[in-house]
Amino acid sequence: MRVLGWGQRVDEAEFVSFYQSRADALRDTAYMLCRDWHLAEDLTQVTFTKLYRVWHRLDDRAALDQYARKVLLRVFLDERRRPWRRETSVEPHSFHLDTATTGGLSAVEASFLHQALVRLPKRRRAVLVLRYWADMSVEQVAETLDCSTGTVKSQSARGLSQLRDELERTRVAVNCGDGVN
Questions:
Q1: Residue 181 CB contacts under 8 Å (≥ 6 apart), including other chains
Q2: Which domains does the chain have, with CATH numbers?
Q3: Cα(135)–Cα(108) distance, integer angstroms
Q4: Distance between CA 55 and CA 49 in Å, rounded?
Q5: Neighbour tally for 141: CB within 10 Å
Q6: 167 burial class (0-12, 13-18, 19+ CB within 10 angstroms)?
Q7: H/E segment holding residue 10
Q8: Is 104 left (phi over 0), alpha (psi -120 to 50) or beta?
Q9: Boundaries of each RNA polymerase sigma factor 70 region 4 type domain copy (predicted)?
Q10: What is the pTM assigned to this prediction?
């Protein structure tokens, strides 16, 4: 144990163990939200920094994954509101997702899915990522997003419908030779 300012105690070994076991999964979730590996790394680091600062107050160790995803989501939403984050990258996104991360999709299919996902509104994208990527229950997503379960259900249905429409547009554009934005 190490004593921090203000008398706080942090079990660093436990925190380091949690970091080592969950950093990759949180980074992948961050990538699903923002579709930028550099930003995903930043979001993950900010998330773990925030977790470290309150680690001594986290009593329910069984709910750490859910709490970490909640912090990550809030960091993502806060980061998107900052004016200096409104710049756009001119280099193409590279896909580092392996087969396990993409659920067995090919690189092209994963690319189309990510392009369609990033076109969704942030909150709707967050619902889909938490619900279907992070495999959270409707209740867990509602708690994470501070909304009702009905909102999660309706946003899931609308998000999936919009995602299907985006994927169809992408498929038609590719088949017609127009390319994808």
A1: 115
A2: 1-86 (1.10.1740), 104-181 (1.10.10.10)
A3: 23
A4: 10
A5: 28
A6: middle
A7: strand 9-10
A8: left
A9: 113-163
A10: 0.58
How do the pLDDT tens digits run along the chain, 181 residues long? 444 554 445 478 888 999 999 999 999 999 988 888 899 999 999 999 999 988 888 888 778 888 999 999 889 888 766 655 544 444 444 444 444 455 566 677 777 777 788 888 888 988 998 888 888 889 988 988 888 999 999 999 999 999 888 888 877 766 666 555 5
Query: Is the alpha carbon torsion for 27, 32, 34, 35 positive or negative?
Result: positive
CB atoms < 10 A from the CB of 73, how many?
25
Taking a C-beta distance cutoff of 8 angstroms, is the pair 159, 128 a contact?
yes
